[in-house]
Amino acid sequence: MSLLREVPSARYQPNWGWVVLGFLTALGFALRVSGHDQSLGGDEYYTQTVITASDGVVSLLRHVRDSYETTPPLYYLLGWLARKWDPSLTAIRIPSLLAGTALVPSVYFLARRMAGWRAGLTAAALVSISPFGIWYSNEARAYALLALLCSLVMLQALRFVERPNWLNSLLLVAASTAALYTHNTAVFCVLAVLAWVFLAHGELRGRAVAIGLATAAFYVPFLLTFEPRDVWWMFGHIYGRGPEIVWTGLERMVLGSAYVPLRVVPGATGLVVVSVCVAVGAFTQRKQLPAARSPITLALTVVITTIAAVYTYAMATNTNIFVPRSMNCMFAAALVLLASAVARAVPGKLAAVLSAVTVAVFGWSTATVFQPGWQRSDVKGAITTAAALKPQPRVVMSGGYRLRNYLPSEIADATIPKELTRSQWAQIGHSFESVAWVNSLLPTGITRAALESRRQLAHEAGFSITCSKLFPGYPPVLLQVASRPGVKWVTAPACSAADLNRAMSIAPVNRRNVRVLPAGSSTTPTPSDLLLLVALVALMLGFLAWLLLGANHKLTRHGRQAFLG
User: Fold this and answer.
1) pTM (2 decimals)?
2) What does the radius of gyration of the chain's CA atoms come to, in whole angstroms?
3) What is the SS3 string spanning 30-69?
4) Which of 99, 66, 94 has its CA nearest to residue 81?
5) Are 137 and 189 within one domain?
6) Of the residues 12, 104, 109, 488, which has the maximum number of CB atoms within 10 A of its CB?
7) For residue range 401-429, what is the model confidence (pLDDT) as tens digits?
């Protein structure tokens, strides 16, 4: 039986719905492009290093293989092509910008096939204004592309089970291979999709195996050139924190933002409101549960399998890969399920209210994270301010040599990459009249004691810190300027004593080494860790068994009604 016959509303779409979809796509692009020119930060510098060091495709693939980078090469190839078209520094973000925008219509079509056009428009609205989706659409990393390609894998799987011809088989292989060449965690989505086809559609098991083998064959060349590395050390350890990590990771991916604290976005109120909407919507659909072969079950399979598989891997290695960015492989599936829960409530007026309230919570969260304090660090603003000072000071970027991107070459070449020690002050302090420091106030960065030591060492060398200026973002960036007595500034920054006081309050007391076990974790699994592991594995195995048992059963009358528009 055709899946589209089982989901009649998958074919139906009111004319005004296309206008709404176009508006949501344009809105998603506008929200994403507004942050396109923000300063690079974090792992984006790895992307920049690989792309700018490559003079061709072969060179780029070699740099991906030989560098510390562990992400597959597809995003780097697209970023390299973008730099050919646009030489600006942020051109390497263009693939993420386009992928994040394209995710809006992709999720619409996916949700419409799974749960009808109302759920499709709701899901598209949630993706369009999702703070999490917007953040990674402005990051020169593979995460937005991962979310898009995994949504296309699911969409193509539905097309394949509807019409299992060679064209749809090849397209599913192509989408799966592209996802695997984008990010390592795509394997969880691909395996979940193939498991659903294999278990829930017994007549297609041979073709599902063939598709899996063909995808694996295309992926082998990358595996053969990949050298195992210490991939996940920067994510910390998971023992002793498993339940907390799983809950906060999922909440941040679905409702929150990448780095904004959950107490801010979505906040306790937002979490409660959305949870109530989902609970009410699910309760009204309690008699309309889907069958194993239902399209919406594919999204359930991806979410349940990914959560269980990622947590199992994390527990086996005591490495926390259960970070929200790595869960982008299930981002589309999770938002489709959320949209389905609220948009398919009974009666239709209640569904409209629940959908509107849920979208409103997402909109409030987005408005919150667009405040300057929650945007990316304004590194560019701090550095260009330092570069504009007259007379020009020597610039110190302790632990941040990559920040020289925003300096003119003649100033960048003279930067000092590490904090000046007492002996260095004695050796070179006499050779310049002023010095400027640029620091991101990260937990792993400069401490309060280091700021005080800087002031003291500068004073001993005959300098006094005359300016401290904070630039907004998360985390904030501190610009400090010290000069000898009598220096006459032609151009000087506007400074405030309040900025220094705030910087001292933000800077960590102790510098945290990310390789050290975080507070509250353990070197061995705790009972709560193991209990959660057993529960998730049991849930996954039970769900897969249910798919297998329901493979030869057609949709019940209630199941068929569950997907009516």
Assistant:
1) 0.92
2) 26
3) HHHHCCCCCCCCCCHHHHHHHHHCCCCHHHHHHHHHHCCC
4) 94
5) yes
6) 104
7) 566 777 777 777 677 777 888 888 887 77
